Amino acid sequence: MYYRDFLGRIHELLEPPTYLEIGVRNGDSLALARSPSIGIDPAYNLKVAPPAGAKLFPVTSDDFFERAEPLLTFEGRRVGFSFIDGMHLSEFALRDFVNVEAHADWTAAIVFDDILPRDIPEANRDRATHQWTGDVYKVLEALEEHRTDLIVLRVATEPTGLGLVLGLDPDSRVLADRLDAIVDGLVQPDPQPVPQAVLERHGALEPDAVLGASFWSVLRDARERGVGRDEGLPALRAAVERDFGR
Fold first, then answer.
1. What pLDDT does 119 receive?
2. Which of 76, 245, 98 shows the shortest CA–CA distance to 165?
3. Integer-rounded Cα radius of gyration of the chain
4. Nearest CA among 205, 237, 204 for reference residue 219
5. What is the pLDDT of residue 245?
6. Domains, the chain
7. Nearest partner of 20 among 65, 63, 111, 81, judged by Cα
């Protein structure tokens, strides 16, 4: 399944009240949104019309989140779904996650693009290929190490996979407080020693299985009923375990 088809189905299944995208480029994925949306990209070049009500910010994601009220467009609502597809370097993608999570509802989904490079050159930090993932795949490894409270799923979409993160904690300071140390461990010179498990997509879930999972209804129900994270996270984890045995 192509990654944009997967993203479109998330909009249908999760029914997020708001959507935030980092890395708009031509606007193809932003156009999938069905709710008030924010698109962030300092050099977007739209070839597809954005959805009605979308607000585009031609700034870096770091600059966007330094604003006094970055989500003013959402009129007090938090992020319900976010797609992170900005700079393809692990330190940038990790900072984006930290910033988005802090402004998200715990029932939101955050999706990373390009987490399954197909060969080592494609994962170079210095771009050397037409299609380029960079070392974004390392962010999921960092989340699994430092934020064991999160649910991290790798999805085998085409061409280069998606990372789906659930069970967010907007109040967590773990990553923010450890950011410099984590980044020091992430950044390595090319060529990157990409794990074989990443190149061979070990543990990556089939997109149709993820889209057919029961946890989407758990997230929707928790959001609609105003269930807090402490109460709702165990039910979410139980659903993921039923769906995938993990």
1. 94
2. 98
3. 17
4. 237
5. 87
6. 3-7+16-209 (3.40.50.150)
7. 81
pLDDT (0 to 100) of residue 78: 98
Reduce the secondary structure of the chain to three states and give it as a string: CEHHHHHHHHHHHHCCCCEEEECCCCCCCHHHCCCCEEEECCCCCCCCCCCCCCEEECCCHHHHHCCCCCCHHHCCCCEEEEEECCCCCHHHHHHHHHHHHHCEEEEEEEEEECCCCCCCHHHCCCCCCCCCCCCCHHHHHHHHHHCCCCEEEEECCECCCEEEEECCCCCCCHHHHHHHHHHHHHCCCCCCCCCHHHHCCCCCECHHHHHCCCHHHHHHHHHHHCCCHHHHHHHHHHHHHHHHCC
- d(CA 20, CA 10) in angstroms, rounded, equals 13
Structure tokens at 59: 């700034």
Contact 136, 117 (CB under 8 A): no
**pLDDT tens figures, 106-132:** 999 999 999 999 999 999 999 988 889
Mean pLDDT of the chain: 96
* Partner residues linked to 83 by β-bridges: 21, 111
- Whether residue 48 contacts residue 27, with contact meaning beta carbons closer than 8 Å, is answered with yes
